[in-house]
Amino acid sequence: MTLKHLKIFTEVCRFGSITAAAKSMGMTQPAVSAAIKELEKSYNIRLFDRMNNRLYITAAGKQMLVHIEEINRQLSELKDIADSTRGDRKLRIGVDVILGMYQLPELLDRIGMDEMSLKTEFFILTPSLLSRKLLNNELDLVLSSGFDSSMFTVSELGSSPLCLMGGSLNNSPFSDQLSPEDLKIERLLLLETESPIYESFCRSIMEKADVNSGFIRSITPEPLIKAAVDGQGIIVLPRLMADYLILSGKKLKILETEGISAQLHFYSATHKQKDPDPYVERIIEMTRAILSRT
Question: How far apart are CA 18 and CA 55, in angstroms?
């Protein structure tokens, strides 16, 4: 017995005719008759008396109709509750510092232009904190540069080459091409990305150049950018951030290094035990489209 059986029964009661009920519901007359028989068999009662080609509801049928009408009323109330609370749902999205600072504004613009009837909340955090919150169901989606893929459903969004930047002021000591000797005497300014690729790239620079002037690390890029502008060192950044800084007027330039290169990859992640969500998929596709242009 299903809700459809109950709906068929109420329609037959309303019209007093199987043929009319079938027409109202877009069904065949034999299908409606079969549903009534299945309902009667399920409860071992007779719902209608059939005399002179007419249907007469039985006493048992009248009692069942009262209960079914109450069920229908409660189902209608549940639908109203669902409709009224649907707008309260929020999509919780976590992003790392790189994407949060330099791609999030465009993503917010795209969400604003999209007809998404859903509120979005964004959290800019470190990758390890993002992973922990996603694992604890405190986030619905994470956009970042590194994950433990065994715990999450991970999809690549795009990549950006890593590069070095130094001050571009007239008194800057940097030429466009850096030699290992240049790197030996310069301080490296490094982000705390928790990305294995970023860390490997930085180690390659240190090993090749035998860097001995130390480095500064920060979970946010602003202090490092200021230090680089002031000529206090060389900052290691994804090219998408470097291009953004140049376009925004920062007195920095990209420095070429021979024989050292790497691509920083960005990923989306959702919890493996959560069902696919069309809203999440739309956010992922928006982010992928933005990164494809960088």
Answer: 8
Task: Say which CATH topology domain 90-294 has.
Answer: D-Maltodextrin-Binding Protein; domain 2 (3.40.190)
* Domains 3-86 and 90-294 in one fold: no
Beta bridge partners of 164: 236, 255
Mean per-residue pLDDT over the chain, rounded: 83
Using one digit for the tens of pLDDT, what is the confidence trace for 96-144? 888 888 888 888 888 877 766 678 889 998 888 898 999 999 999 999 9
Give the closest residue to 259 by CA, choosing from 222, 209, 219, 224: 209
Distances (CA, A) of 89 to 116, 273, 280: 12, 19, 13
Full DSSP string of 3-46: HHHHHHHHHHHHHT-HHHHHHHHT--HHHHHHHHHHHHHHHT--
Residues 224, 262: Cα–Cα separation, whole Å: 20
Using 50, 70 and 90 to split pLDDT, how confident is the model at 213? low
**Beta strand spans in 119-240 (E):** 119-124, 141-144, 152-167, 177-178, 188-191, 215-218, 234-238
Q: Distance (Å, rounded) from C-alpha 76 to C-alpha 96?
A: 43
Q: For 214, left (φ over 0), alpha (ψ -120 to 50), or beta?
A: left
List the end-to-end C-alpha distance of the chain, in Å, as a whole number.
57
Helix axes 18-25 and 29-43, enclosed angle (nearest 10): 110
Q: How much of the chain exceeds pLDDT 70, in percent? A: 86
Return all residues near 158 (Cβ < 8 A) that are at least 6 apart: 265, 266, 288, 291, 292, 294
CATH number of 3-86: 1.10.10.10
Name the percent of the chain in helix, strand, coil, to the closest 5: 50, 25, 30
pTM of the model: 0.65
